[in-house]
Amino acid sequence: MKNYKHLLGSFLMALAVVNQSYSQHIQELSELSSLVKPRMRVIIDNDFGGDPDGLFQLAHHLMSPSVEIKGIVASHLYEQGFGGPGTSEYAKEQAMKVLKLLKLEESIPVYSYENQSMTDAETPLDSDGVQAIITEAMRTDTDLPLYVVCGGSLTNVASAYLLEPKIADKLTLIWIGGPEYNDLATPPPGYTTLEYNLGIDIKAAQVVFNQSDLKLWQVPRDAYRQPIMSDAELLTRVKGKGALGDHLYEVMKNAFGKLSKWNVPVGEVYIYGDNPLVLLTALQSSFEADPSSSFYTLKQAPTINDAGVYEVNLQGRNIRVYQTIDNRLLFEDFYAKLELLDQGEN
């Protein structure tokens, strides 16, 4: 009994030290965060009602103090995409759940719109989200650079450009989408020629690549397939990490259930292809700010034809095409922020 009491006392003392350590971490994080000033403005445009990686990207961005989120555009995808309705309004509902868990639902505007893709490369589809992109880009009262990050179609940024071409030199567009370039990467087994995000709105992609002079950083399929989280990591480093971690876990559990029902064997991992949007913005290097731990090639922007396939364009402007992604920084920062948020809640 004496040994038991001694062990129990030692355990409680150790637990007190651990709790004190966590409290210290939270205090230190708060102190560090107070020293971090936003280095950029960000507008997020993503199809939060489809592949659940977009919700992980949204949560990660919202937990990052170096970016100032100016608005969120909930974009459409394919009809019945990923087993949901595929609508912009449904995507907005999913995004709002994340904002509410972070108590940000009153702080950041979320826009939805009519569920359409462009019918041609000359006619924009105007909406509140499109106007928000234009308004933010045309501001003259701030020196913070603006990034528009897209994890789905290019409908909204293409429409914004057509309505106000002057935005081209006032923002950087980061897009998760497009197939591999033949000289840079080999397509995956069983690939489709028409890449998923590009196929949502081919005309919008034609505006951005073929017509515009928008500053573009592209993360094509071979690069966005690199950020992979295992199920074991999901269980040990996301589930149980506060209300947000539990919500994201349930979202993934639901997705795995759908994939199993559809007889799509995904093994014990999942691709979180939208998360490079956080890496390339919030996690830029401290000095000479740039995504210095991920690597890209400068290429002339290809022409995108009506089938959604690249064609060589010797007059194309230079764009960044990312080839390798710093997955260590991307995922470890995400896990750490979830952990610290959880400890702050407790």
UniProtKB/TrEMBL annotation:
SUPFAM superfamilies: Nucleoside hydrolase. Keywords: Glycosidase, Hydrolase. Transmembrane segments: none annotated. One of its GO terms (cellular component) is cytosol. InterPro entries: Inosine/uridine_hydrolase_dom, IUNH, Ribo_hydro-like. The keyword Kinase does not apply. Residues 42-265 form the Inosine/uridine-preferring nucleoside hydrolase domain. GO terms for molecular function: purine nucleosidase activity. One of its GO terms (biological process) is purine nucleoside catabolic process. It comes from the Bacteria. The keyword Ion transport does not apply. Pfam families: IU_nuc_hydro. PANTHER family: INOSINE-URIDINE PREFERRING NUCLEOSIDE HYDROLASE (PTHR12304), URIDINE NUCLEOSIDASE (PTHR12304:SF4). This is Inosine-uridine preferring nucleoside hydrolase.
